[in-house]
Design brief:
There is one protein chain. By secondary structure, this protein is an alpha/beta fold. The protein has 2 domains: 228 residues, Alpha-Beta Barrel (TIM Barrel); 84 residues. Helices cover 33% and strands 15% of the residues. Helix 10 crosses helix 11, helix 10 crosses helix 14 and helix 13 packs antiparallel against helix 14. The protein is globular, with a radius of gyration of 20 Å.
Length: 376
């Protein structure tokens, strides 16, 4: 059974998360987006676990996997997948002596090394991997030089790429040859612009959290999908104050301080991955670069936001016609899309053909894109 999965998001108990984030809102968005397996996010938080009661088995037919993200030593973030809320609760109890925020923050700080975190997770029957591994501030490779340095003998079960990287960024790193890659949204809002903006297409034996986790760990991943890496806010080496971008050698020459305003220059994910890619490219599932349908509609209509009534009405029309957003972006014939809106059909065709002009992000500022059909 082939399903689309998004295994990393957050609840209102995490910082900078929409208060409209709720299990029912998330499940509704999954239907519109085309996500069949959803991580709960923040399953370390008791109130969020309670909120999911009655929703893990749902009328929408979405398989719900209890997941959480914790911050360990070095400010490194770790993504944890579990088969049940009971296992998530057991892991949280084990973390409690090392965390002042385990019951108050959706993404708690845990005063443990990556290896100790992984050991506890494995002891309780969960699986774990570095979240957005290449992100310079809180990703594993932003702090450590290797998996072993972070996790010691308790190696992770997978690695999350993050919005600023695709699978090509990790395929040439020798220590990752046998580590499955996942791509998830890390969404802070139930909007279709956020949920499923990065997703995995995996093959599972049955519709249970255990089957999903087994498929991830076995590498039964048919497709990773997500942003063009250039759209990520840490893709290029750049100043965190003025966002000017630098070649890696320029940043080194300037002592990682911006010569224009003295701001900190943060190494970009692209440069970081290039520095670490010392081996041949290992075979990986295809990576599908996508752009949220709402952003394509916004670009075509020339509106200030994808949340305008005009954009929302056209988005709803596409969902009514074709069932879900991922189908429109990947499967529906261009001619059929054109019957709803020719401009959006041209934008989707640009996306599928790679006719996208990218303006890379860096230093904390998201990159942008242009559609060639709209430019012309």
């Amino acid at each position: 059974m082939i399903v689309n999965t998004d295994l990393h998001l957050h609840s209102p108990f995490s910082m900078a998360v929409s208060k409209s984030m709720s299990p029912s809102a998330l499940l509704e968005t999954c239907i519109r987006k085309g996500i069949e397996v959803l991580g709960t996010g923040d399953a370390s938080h008791p109130a969020w676990r309670d909120a999911w009661e009655g929703h893990t088995e749902n009328e929408e037919g979405i398989t719900v996997v209890p997941t959480m993200e914790v911050q360990g030593e070095g400010r490194v973030h770790h993504l944890i997948l579990t088969e049940s809320m009971e296992i998530a609760e057991a892991i949280s109890r084990r973390f409690a002596p090392y965390s002042r925020t385990i019951n108050s923050s959706g993404r708690p700080h845990v005063a443990l090394s990556g290896g100790d975190i992984a050991r506890i997770v494995h002891d309780e029957g969960g699986v774990v991997g570095p979240a957005h591994a290449f992100t310079p501030w809180t990703g594993m490779y932003g702090k450590y030089c290797s998996l072993e340095e972070c996790y010691q003998e308790e190696l992770p079960d997978f690695l999350e790429l993050g919005l600023s990287a695709d699978s090509s960024y990790g395929a040439g790193i020798p220590e990752l040859v046998n580590i499955p890659f996942v791509s998830n949204s890390d969404a802070h809002s139930p909007s279709p612009l956020k949920i499923g903006r990065e997703f995995n297409r995996i093959d599972i034996n049955n519709e249970t959290p255990a089957a999903v986790i087994e498929s991830v760990c076995r590498g039964n991943i048919l497709l990773n999908a997500g942003f063009f890496p250039e759209e990520g806010k840490y893709n290029r080496t750049a100043c965190t104050t003025c966002y000017r971008q630098f070649h890696f050698s320029e940043a080194e020459e300037n002592g990682w301080r911006c010569p224009h305003d003295g701001g900190v220059i943060k190494v970009g994910v692209r440069d970081l991955a290039e520095q670490m890619s010392t081996g041949p490219m290992s075979p990986r599932p295809p990576y599908l670069h996508t752009i949220p349908l709402g952003e394509i509609i916004q670009t075509v209509l020339g509106t200030s936001s994808p949340n305008t009534r005009k954009c929302q009405a056209l988005y709803d029309e596409f969902i009514a016609c074709f069932g879900c957003e991922i189908a429109v972006l990947t499967d529906v014939a261009i001619g059929e899309i054109a019957q709803v809106n020719p401009g959006v059909a041209g934008g989707v065709e640009d996306l599928r053909s790679g006719r996208i002009t990218l303006h890379p992000g860096g230093g904390g500022k998201y990159g942008t894109f242009s559609l060639q059909s709209v430019e012309n």
